[in-house]
Amino acid sequence: LFTAVLLAHGQASGFNFSLAYGHSLVQTSSNTVNASAVIGLAFQHDFDRRFGVALDFFLNSDGNASIHSNDWIYSAKYFFADNDATAFYLGTFFGYQHVKGSWREYTGTGGNGYGTYKQTDVSKAQFPIGIRAGIRGGLEGYFAELFGQVGYAIGNGDLYTVDGKKVTSSPVYLTLGVS
User: Fold this and answer.
1) pLDDT tens per residue across span 63-91
2) Which of 14, 2, 86, 60 is nearest to 177 (CA)?
């Protein structure tokens, strides 16, 4: 019983809201990279003074296209100091990213002189994996977090072709944010 009380005492949990910058969700053959806006909600749990985990849900919207994603990211964190106060951490993450959207392609004018468009809906599942680092306050009471994560999206590839140019989902998974 004494051990159970000690283990329960060392654990803390908390929720946080995130605003972040994300790497572009798509790549074109012109290699144009656009930033994406990211908002999110996370649940964080510390198992002891040096080890914690988090489950993040991010909504990601690409800059110039009607492409967006829903991301579920699980991260494990090792804190370099006791995490009951502000501490730096380093860890790994893996997750699920559902990239989806639509694209309108101009197909020319018909016999009536009006332009016609072809609507293409796209959807792709990817699995980001990588490294996460940051600084976070203790979970007891109010806390804040500043973080960055970079990794590779397993399963990236072709989304659609427009005017003979391929548009692919980005293999880079990068997020810089504040919670």
Assistant:
1) 656 788 999 999 999 999 988 889 999 99
2) 60
For the beta carbon of residue 120, count every other beta carbon within 10 angstroms: 15
CB neighbour class for 17 (10 Å; exposed up to 12, middle 13-18, buried from 19): exposed
Looking up tokens 């730096």, which residue turns up? Answer: 88
Q: Which of 144, 130, 68 is nearest to 103 (CA)?
A: 68
pLDDT in tens, 35-53: 788 999 999 999 988 999 9
Burial class from Cβ neighbours inside 10 Å (0-12, 13-18, 19+) for residue 51 reads middle
**Hey, what are 70's tokens?**
């829903």
Q: In what order do the strands lie in the sheet with 158-162?
A: 26-28, 165-169, 158-162
